[in-house]
User: Fold this.
Amino acid sequence: MEYRTKSKVGLMAALLLSANTLQAQQTRQLSLDEAIQLSLDNSKNLKVSQAKIDQAAAELSEARLRQYPDLKISGSYLRVNQPNIDMKAKLGGSGQGEGSSSASEIKVDQVAYGMATASLPLFSGLRIRSGIESAKYLKRAAELDAQQDKDEVIQNTIAAYYNLYKAQAALGLVEENLKQAQQRVKDFSNLEQNGLMARNDLLKAQLQESNVELALVDAQHARDIANFNMDLMLGLNEQTELKLDAGGLGRTYKIESLQAWEDKALASRSDYQALQQRQLASKAGIKAAKGEYYPSLALSGGYVAADIPNFLTVTNALNVGVGLSYNIASLYKNGAKVKQAKAREQQLHWSSMQLNDGIRMEIHQAYQNYLESVKKIEVYRKAVEQARENYRITKNKYDNALVTTTDLLDADVAQLQADINYEYARADAEVAINKLYETAGVPRDPGAKQ
Assistant:
């Protein structure tokens, strides 16, 4: 009795757990545009890029603030001992009459003073102006870097989206093929039991059924992994099952010549433009380094107030003037800074040349990959037609005892493989055209179809 009670409790717990699992499993229809927007909203890499832009904007603000006056206020209140004061000049006149005092009568036990100074740079060897110019270029470079990161996030999302589509398509095709294999085994079993089929042919059909079941396990595993990765990328619940929109797959696009794509890339690639902005910033850095050779000129002013009880009070002490400073050591020390700035400019120059070559190679590869993917679609489309016709003919021959069971099973496997290859080719072509546009740094035009 106790055993039955425990069994019932365990069964109820299992049912509740199963119900919770089903409830947690969500299904969501997802278009490619929605996937891209979700990935942009949840990309941690883009948040890092935005932080870099904010940092560059703050550095530009700091560079601009160097144009404004420096304002300083200071003051002190001091308690002192009884100092020995020996005044060489008499206080209040030379007489000894009433109202006069001697140095020995002065008692000082506290001192208070305050001052305010202001300094406005008039000329600093163009260091301030060059610093602002450099900061502007670096901020623009950070913005272009962020755009490049955004393009990469979009391309990664597109690749992940169609990778999940391929996994789902393969799973659907294998499931359909498994149903056919199971039905075939059932039919062959009836024939074998009635003595109309050899046992060996039934075993071949059962072996193929087992192979398809193993393929189904692999397809389910690939689909689950791709679905989980997609959920994680988009910031969705990891238990969400995604249903993708496959509309538009297999389209071909009217594309220009390879040279036209190279020209577009060099004119539009954000990383290439960012490097050019850094080159301009490095040139401004050279100007700033050379500015150390020049003196600095500044307009200055100040106010001083002091109070020493029983001794001295100073108020309304204003001063204004022009200050000139020059570090003579910069004549022999600053040369190293100028050389460093020039070396950075040369490094960026050659990096730009290197990136130029890299962009051309990337464009060439993306261009050829797309052309190849278009050709594969045509080839696999014909292969699907051929595989289906081959299976139809083989099935007719098998029904008329003209071919063996092995031939029939081989024709069935060839048909399944052709269907999978065709679906893969359609998805790969969509990824390839998006990669070509992303490599060129230009937005894809969905209407530019052949």
The domain at 30-69+125-295+330-440 is CATH 1.20.1600.10 (Outer membrane efflux proteins (OEP)). The chain has nine helices and six strands.
